Amino acid sequence: MEQVRKAQSLAEENYQKCRTLAKELNTTQSPEVYTILFLDEANTTDAIGLIKEILCDGRMMGEPLDRTSGLKIIAACNPYRK
């Protein structure tokens, strides 16, 4: 949860920096900048329910994630082994 919060803050900072740069360049285009949070080995953790909530529901502990910050969250799973 701490990493998601940090990533959201970083995404907001990145977005604001790009907006400021766009204003300095006198462009009317809205900046498209994305910050990526990569969750590796998502299927090997006990927090799989939280990861599902973040990835599928766009929430964390019931609270909605900010969709306007440009944060994109992706995850990788390991192959299943018996």
Counting structural domains, the number is: 1
Side by side, the strands of the main sheet go 1-4
Count helical runs: 2
- Structural class, by secondary structure, is alpha+beta
Question: What is the helix/strand order?
Answer: HEHEEE
What does the overall shape look like?
Answer: elongated
First and last CA, distance: 30 Å
Portion in strands: 15-25%
Radius of gyration: 16 Å
Average pLDDT taken over every residue: 89
Q: Indicate the percent of residues in helices.
A: 40-55%
Number of strands: 4
Major beta sheet, specifics? 2 strands, parallel
Low-confidence spans: pLDDT under 50, at least 5 residues? none
Describe the structure.
- The protein has 82 residues and is an alpha+beta fold.
- The protein has one domain.
- The protein contains 2 helices and 4 strands.
- The protein has helices at 2-24, 48-57, and strands at 35-39, 59-60, 63-64, 71-75.
- The chain has a two-stranded parallel ribbon with strand order 1-4. A two-stranded antiparallel sheet has the order 2-3.
- A hairpin with a 2-residue loop joins β2 (59-60) and β3.
Characteristics of this structure?
two-stranded parallel ribbon; single chain; alpha+beta; two-stranded antiparallel ribbon; 2 helices; 40% helix; 82 residues
Protein topology:
Layout: H1 2-24, E1 35-39, H2 48-57, E2 59-60, E3 63-64, E4 71-75
Parallel strand pairs: 1-4
Antiparallel strand pairs: 2-3
Q: How is this structure best summarized?
A:
This protein is α+β, with helices and mostly antiparallel strands and 82 residues long. It has helices at residues 2-24, 48-57, and strands at residues 35-39, 59-60, 63-64, 71-75.
